[in-house]
Specification:
By secondary structure, this protein is mainly beta. It has helices at about 100-110, 115-120, and strands at about 1-15, 20, 25, 30-35, 55, 60-65, 70-75, 85-95, 100, 125-130, 135-140, 140-145, 150-155, 160. A six-stranded antiparallel β-barrel has the order 1-4-7-6-5-8. It has a three-stranded antiparallel β-sheet with strand order 10-11-12, with no helix packed on it. It has a two-stranded antiparallel sheet with strand order 2-3. It is globular. Mean pLDDT is about 80; it is low at about 120-145 and about 155-170.
């Protein structure tokens, strides 16, 4: 299963500038930061710490700062081709074939992969609605509209599905 999103904004930082809630992460050098359309409101683990790996255009990068409700920030200083719209893989297989194992991401979140996967998977509580309903997904008793760029692929019986859990669904 692959969880992917995209870069929705870019920002240049000077050395020492803070990022995220309470400025926990500070740029160790002049840096480029990508804002990614995925956060704890979508079901991504809010405990992901600085350095949690993601793939941007198939290149390994690290989360910089705390995960926000609907976005997270990634240090893309060493990925010169990262631009708005670039593919971001939070776990799974990137378009170029590079794989980021969900187990590795889970270790950075101090949890297990099943916790991350069930935050996005419809499982027995979710229903993927068809095209007639404009691809809404009922997940953990919440309906999420199909306008988010965050996608889950590799689910049985579907090429791509939207399936995100609102805050509180993961028991935090």
């Amino acid at each position: 299963m692959t969880l992917r999103s995209e870069v929705i904004a870019m920002r240049e930082l000077e050395e020492g500038e803070p990022v995220g809630y309470s400025g926990r992460w500070r740029a160790p050098r002049r840096s480029r930061i990508a804002v990614v359309a995925c956060g704890y409101g979508d079901g991504y683990d809010r405990h992901a710490r600085d350095g949690t790996p993601v793939l941007v255009n198939g290149q390994r990068c690290a989360i910089a700062g705390k995960v926000s409700m609907d976005m997270l920030t990634v240090d893309v200083t060493d990925v010169p081709d990262a631009v708005i719209g670039s593919e971001v893989v939070l776990w799974g297989r990137a378009s170029n074939g590079v794989i980021l194992p969900v187990d590795e991401v889970a270790r950075y979140c101090d949890t297990i992969s099943y916790t991350l996967l069930t935050g996005y998977c419809p499982g027995h509580r979710g229903v993927i609605m068809g095209v007639l309903f404009k691809r809404l997904v009922l997940c953990r008793n919440h309906v999420i509209p199909a306008h988010s760029p965050t996608r889950v692929t590799g689910l049985p019986g579907s090429e791509s599905a939207l399936c995100m859990s609102p805050p509180g669904c993961l028991g935090d």
